[in-house]
Write a structure and sequence with these properties.
By secondary structure, this protein is of the alpha/beta class. The protein has a single domain (10-473), classed as TIM Barrel (Alpha-Beta Barrel), CATH 3.20.20.80. Helix content is 39%, strand content 15%. The protein has helices at residues 17-20, 66-80, 91-94, 105-120, 136-142, 149-164, 187-194, 204-229, 251-273, 278-287, 295-303, 355-369, 394-412, 462-473; strands spanning 10-14, 84-88, 124-130, 171-175, 234-240, 244-246, 308-312, 317-320, 328-329, 337-339, 345-346, 352-353, 373-377, 386-387, 390-391, 418-421, 444-446, 458-460. The strands form 5 sheets. Strands 1-2-3-4-5-7-13-16 form an 8-stranded parallel barrel, surrounded by 4 helices. A 4-stranded mixed beta sheet has the order 6-8-10-9, with helices on one face. The chain has a two-stranded antiparallel sheet with strand order 11-12. Strand 11 (345-346) and strand 12 form a beta hairpin. The chain is globular, with a radius of gyration of 21 Å. It binds 6-O-phosphono-beta-D-glucopyranose. 6-O-phosphono-beta-D-glucopyranose is lined by residues 16, 19, 176-177, 240, 312, 377, 381, 424, 431-434, 439. One of its GO terms (cellular component) is cytosol.
Length: 474
């Protein structure tokens, strides 16, 4: 079997602005949702504070100071052989509060310089418009994405940057991992996806559906607008795909897995098909949820379907309805529980390692939408040890190689149309989930620890040479 990828395959690396840039209050940047998240730890949640509180540790404020190191970092990306680099535009650099009419020129200039530097090095920018960086003011003043005004603010922001960078950026994505928030039960997810915090008595599920739907409407409007700005734009969605398997072949386990997956597919079904799926309509009716959507908005969904499906893949999950198996309850299918899959191992953070799950995901998603796919995140968060100035990380190479092998099968055996692969955290960065620095994904090590100490010096890990060779050999 040919283990090759298409000639123009986008081998790359991915980060997000708030996890690398730092410079959180430089050049008139405003406060974002990520700027009020403190450092947690492995198994300890990050705190979301009301504004910035003196004396707390906010790891995104400095991150790895990519804002001032990007030239040096891009030189390393070039040496690595990257053909694409995925990052996001930090909304609050462009509109510090989110509801201004006029953008902040210093913020626009920063991304002009960044994209120029990438293009000069033959690296294609792949840009996410909203990667957990919603202006904090939009929470304080409007309550986040449950408020329909945020649709207009997002469209205005997107129009501004798509117009400015129309000749520099071709690949766009609207909302990062929009389906993280799916069940509305995790504060970190509803906060980062939607700038949404709940009060006592709120119906979390209904409010999250409303916020998510508003984002889908905003996204569709931006897809249409983007194509008017430049017909060559490729505008995708960005999903977190965690395939959930039935634990047993008991038919009710299978049905539970279908319902759990529906909840996640809800977002890409609308992004790709432009209509609200029947299973969601029925669910809302049964629950008595009145999710607001106008005729004009329904039309917008139809007219703004995406060009490709961008997604992250890290792990799989499993569910069961069997009474004698221990697990955690879920909202999507009350009789079912999430359980640990005994057939796969897990990372130090409990993320279940399942390379075959990537091939499975590529298959089911391609069959579902028949659109090109783009793996824009995949990777292994691990503790690295610096020994004699070197980082030996065979565990990372092993994880990535096994996933790439499955990707090759999906392309060469199953016929999946795959545009590219940008593994997560090409350079070490602040973890989204825990706020740690020491949950490392990179091929490039950054000298900084969880407490924020370190020189920020960059260092190539063993995996750097491995990925470099893999890209060369395609
Ligand atoms: C995805 C996000 O959830 O996974 C990234 O898009 C995030 O922002 C990545 O960093 C890995 O998660 P974590 O919690 O290990 O940083």
């Amino acid at each position: 079997m040919a283990n090759k990828f298409p000639k123009d395959f986008l081998w790359g690396g991915a980060v997000a602005a708030h996890q690398v840039e730092g410079a959180w209050n430089v050049d008139k940047k405003g406060v974002s949702t990520a700027d009020v998240m403190t450092a947690g730890a492995n198994g300890v949640a990050r705190e979301i504070t009301k504004g910035i509180i003196e004396g707390k540790n906010y790891p995104n404020h400095e991150a790895i100071d990519f804002y001032h190191h990007y030239k040096e970092d891009i030189a390393l990306f070039k040496e690595l052989g990257l053909k694409a680099f995925r990052t996001s535009i930090n909304w609050t650099r462009i509109f510090p509060n989110g509801d201004e009419e006029k953008p902040n020129e210093a913020g626009l200039q920063f991304y002009d310089d960044l994209f120029d530097e990438l293009l000069k090095n033959n690296i294609e920018p792949v840009i996410t418009l909203s990667h957990f960086e919603i202006p904090y003011h939009l929470y304080e003043e409007y309550g986040g994405f449950t408020n329909k005004k945020l649709i207009d603010f997002f469209v205005h922001y997107a129009k501004t940057v798509m117009t400015r960078y129309k000749d520099k950026v071709k690949y766009w994505m609207t909302f990062n991992e929009i389906n993280n928030q799916a069940d509305g039960q995790h504060t970190l997810h509803t906060w980062t996806n939607s700038a949404l915090l709940f009060e006592e008595g709120d119906n979390k599920e209904a409010l999250t559906f409303q916020a998510g739907l508003n984002e889908l409407i905003a996204s569709a409007k931006v897809v249409k607008l983007g194509h008017e700005i430049n017909p060559d734009f490729q505008i995708g969605c960005m999903m977190a795909y965690v395939p959930v398997y039935p634990y047993s072949c008991n038919p009710s386990d299978l049905m539970a897995s279908v319902k759990v997956m529906d909840r996640r597919f809800f977002y890409s079904d609308i992004h790709a098909r432009g209509i609200i799926p029947a299973y969601a309509q029925k669910y809302w009716e049964q629950k008595g949820y009145e999710i607001e959507i106008t005729q004009e908005e329904r039309q917008a969904l139809k007219e703004g379907t995406v060009d490709y499906i961008g997604f992250s893949y890290y792990m799989s999950g499993a569910v069961t309805t069997l009474p004698d198996v221990a697990g955690d309850e879920i909202t999507e299918f009350p009789e079912a529980k999430v359980i640990l899959n005994p057939y796969v191992s897990a990372s130090d953070w409990g993320w279940q390692i399942d390379p075959v799950g990537l091939r499975y995901t590529l298959n089911i998603v391609y069959e579902r939408y028949n659109l090109p796919l783009f793996i824009v995140e995949n990777g292994f968060g691990a503790y690295d040890k610096l020994e004699d100035g070197k980082i030996h990380d065979p565990y990372r190479i092993d994880y990535l190689q096994k996933h790439i092998d499955q990707m090759a099968l999906a392309v060469n055996v199953d016929g999946v149309d795959l545009m590219g692969y940008t593994p997560w955290g090409v350079i070490d960065l602040v973890s989204f989930g825990s706020g740690e620095m020491e949950k490392r994904y990179g091929f490039i090590y950054v000298d900084k620890d969880n407490a924020g100490n370190g020189t920020l010096k960059r260092l190539k890990k063993d995996s750097f040479a491995w990925y470099q060779k893999l890209i060369q050999e395609n």
